[in-house]
Structure formats: C-alpha cells, structure tokens
Amino acid sequence: MNAFEIIGGKKLKGEITPQGAKNEALQIISAVLLTDKKITISNIPDIKDVNKLIELLGDLGVAIERLNKDTYTFEAKNINLDFFQSDVFKTKGGGLRGSIMIVGPLLARFGKAAIPKPGGDKIGRRRLDTHFLGFEKLGAKFVYDSKKAFFNVDATNLKGAYILLDEASVTGTANIVMAAVLAKGTTTIYNAACEPYLQQLCKMLNRMGAQISGIGSNLLTIEGVKKLDGTEHKMLPDMIEIGSFIGLAAMTESEITIKNVQYDELGVIPEVFKKLGIKLERRGDDIFVPSQKHYELDTFIDGSILTLADAPWPGFTPDLLSIILVVATQARGNVLIHQKMFESRLFFVDKLIDMGAQIILCDPHRATVNGIDKKYKLRGISMTSPDIRAGVSLLIAALSAEGTSTIYNIEQIERGYQDIDTRLRALGAQIKRVEGSGPSH
Predict the structure, then answer these.
(1) Between β-strands 332-338 and 366-372, what pairing exists: parallel, antiparallel or unpaired?
(2) Is residue 222 located within the same domain as residue 251?
(3) Same domain, 287 and 215
(4) What is the pTM of this model?
(5) What is the pLDDT of residues 220-254, one digit of tens each?
(6) Domain that residue 350 falls in
(7) What percent of the chain stands above pLDDT 70?
(8) Most buried of 348, 354, 360, 390 (most Cβ within 10 A)?
(9) In angstroms, what CA-CA distances link 69 with 65, 72, 261, 323, 422?
(10) CA atoms 144, 147, 150, 152: torsion sign
C-alpha cells in the first residue's frame, strides 16, 4: 500500500491547471458505444477510474487510439457482446462504479446488456434503482441474479416514455438519456439532473445527431433517432479539483492561480467559498486566490450561524462539502455542515479532530465546525483515506498542519486526482510517495 508523506505548514505559490472532469469522463466515454463512427475526446484525466473504463471498452472490442496525454479516439465498430458473460468482465466491471454507464448505450444500440453489481466509493448506499427503473419505463426487462450479483438486461424494443425520476441522479439521468436517444418515439425525463457534465453529454449527443431539448433544465425531451454519427468533444475542467485548490490556497495562506477553469460553468462554487471569507478574483478564465492570513465565516442576515448544505445542481455539489468542512476549521466563526445527499461521508472528521480541529459530529449527516482562526495550526498525524473526496480533504489539512503527516490508502485519492503529488510539488509542497502498510491502531 502506497502512502503520501507530507511536511506541512509551508506556503505554496504558483499556477495549477485542473484536470478534465472525472464525472463527465465516465459518461462521455461510455457514449462512444452509441455509434460505429469515430469519436475524438480531449482533456481526458489520466486517473484510475477513467483508465479502467477505457480498458473495459477495449475489452468489449472498441478500437482505441491514444493521440496524446489527454486525447483519444474511439471507434465502437466491432463490439463483442459475449464478453459480458466472461469472468474478466465480472471482475473488471464489478470493481468500477462507472461501469454502470455502459448499460444505457448498449441497450440503445444492441438491445441487450449485462452488468455486475458495481463497486467504488464506500460512502453509504448509492442506489442504482434510478437507472433500472428508467430503463424499464423505456421497455427494458432485467433480471438480477443474486447468487452471482449480476444484472442481465433485455431491451430489444425500446420505446420513448414519460419518466419522472424519483431522484435527480446525474449518472441515472445520463444513462437514461443514452438509452433514449435511439429509442422509438419521444422520451420525456422530468426531475432530470442538470449538472454541467450532463449538459456536456447532451450537447455532444446532439452533435452526433440526437434530438435532445431542454438542456440545462430539469425537463429533458428526447426525440429518438435511428443512428448517430461521430464527433469531437473537449471535456470541462474538473470543478471538484478547482474547489479543492481554492481550499488549499486558503488553508496554507498561499497565492495560487488556477488556470482555465471555465468559470461560467462553476455555478455557486465560488460564492460558497466567499461565504467562508476566502478572497478570490476572476481573471479572464482563471481564478486568482491571494495569500490570506485570516478568513471569516459569514452569518445569516439575522446573525445566526451559517448552514452549508449540498443539493442537486444548481445547488452546491456534495463532492466539495468535505473540502468546505476542512477549510472551515481554520476560519474565524462557526458553521453547520449538512451532508444531505450521501451517508457516511462525514466519518473522516475524527482524523481532523485528532489533528486539533474543533468539530462536533452531530450525526452521520451533520457536523458543527468551530473555526479556530489559525490561532494554532493543525498537527500532523498518520491517517487512512476512506474515499476520494475525504482523502483530498485530509491532504489539504496535512499540507496546512505543523509537522509530518502520513496518508495511507492513497489509491482512493488517485482514483480521482491525476499526478496530484507532482502537481502540488510544483507549487512548493513537501509531499512524497512512500511505501507503507498503514497506521497501527
């Protein structure tokens, strides 16, 4: 097991460019299965979850060519549908949560698919019902084999339908959209997710010949077409990385410029960081965060303690709530962090408490942070990363802390963040990769 060893308390300085968006990549790359024509995708992040999905597509028979570090061409001409029944597929598909995203396109184009029960983050139950209920409404029939933990899906006659989603699931919406673009007739998806990633997918599908209207709203209308063509697509920068770097700058009193952020696609993210008292400036399409000794949490207008909560887009993304929590530990003032959308995502706060943060974990969904206004620094400890976002939050805490920290299970961090140690070293961070078996308890 690899670990990061971090000597904290150093001010950082310089420019950093966010990678392509992980959550967009899993949808966009799956969409290449909808056509036998060539699709070129650029700004693909070089991270484990994305690379595993690309490998899975190669195993399925997609012809893949890597043009440079972040650009690939995909041609899904000769798909081997028998691969679904192989042990290789069961192993690879089960170890990657994003593998669920290939089901919609395969149903649409070939009328059948299969999927092992996916793995991924340990952040509570993340149901797949939305995906399957949507496919069922379009006319798919699926059978779950509980002994093998395997779904077989038959969709030889997909027809457009009115679908009211029980939750505005991003991956669920994306999967149903991909299944519906080649279905007969009109599909209407109400309570659809409207994240920028999903808008990107819909725009790409329209360039391929799909007929999707209502993009950016929670009501999508899809007129089914017979076939789709190839296209070129450039992915957005990862908004979670952008938010992470803003938090990193504030915690370490660093002057950092975050390059090419596609500012207009960031929604409320910059405003939420401003509520923590963090100064940031838009400079063209860059964000400049000046070195800041102190930052003070807002209160509500009546003076009561601020509550920050996640919500479906255009609300605040749940993936940045753990970053907000860490940054609040060094602010002046108090805040209630309310993680509404996932269970168990706040369980990493015990590590922050060990580092000297003042946090009360009220229940699995809420934590009250008493900001210590940098009166003393957090202290370095040994800890283990439970999931991608908590892992980066702990990394930010370690970079701001006094002394040496060791973070184990960094494979979790590297599922979502490309070359993170190299890029942070370029800003002056003291971080190195070491071999380790994990902290003793």
Answers:
(1) antiparallel
(2) no
(3) no
(4) 0.90
(5) 999 999 999 999 999 999 999 999 999 999 999 99
(6) 2-19+237-435
(7) 94
(8) 390
(9) 11, 8, 19, 28, 16
(10) negative
- Of 121, 310, 387, 421, catalytic: 121
pLDDT in tens, 172-202: 999 999 999 999 999 999 999 999 999 999 9
Tell me, yes or no, whether 440 lies in a domain.
Answer: no
Binding site for phosphoenolpyruvate, residues? Answer: 22-23
Instruction: Mark whether 243 and 104 lie in a shared domain.
Output: no
Report the candidate in 119, 37, 112, 38 with the shortest Cα–Cα distance to residue 82: 112
Average pLDDT over residues 348-374: 95
Q: For residues 14-24, give the mean pLDDT.
A: 95
Establish whether 121 is a catalytic residue.
Answer: yes
Rounded mean pLDDT, 107-130: 65
181 and 247 co-located in one domain: no
285 with 186, same domain? no
Taking only the tens place, the pLDDT of each residue in 378-430 is 999 999 988 888 999 999 999 999 999 999 999 888 888 999 999 999 999 99
CATH of the domain at 389: 3.65.10.10
Q: Please report the pLDDT score of residue 440 as a whole number.
A: 54
Q: Which of 180, 214, 234 is the last residue of a domain?
A: 234
Give yes or no: residues 30 and 117 share one domain: yes
Taking only the tens place, the pLDDT of each residue in 79-117 is 998 887 777 777 776 666 667 888 899 999 999 887 766
Does 247 lie in the same domain as 230? no
- How far are the Cα atoms of 167, 337, 392, 412 from residue 121, in angstroms, in the given order? 19, 21, 14, 8
Task: Quickly state the pLDDT bin for 121 (edges 50, 70, 90).
Answer: very low
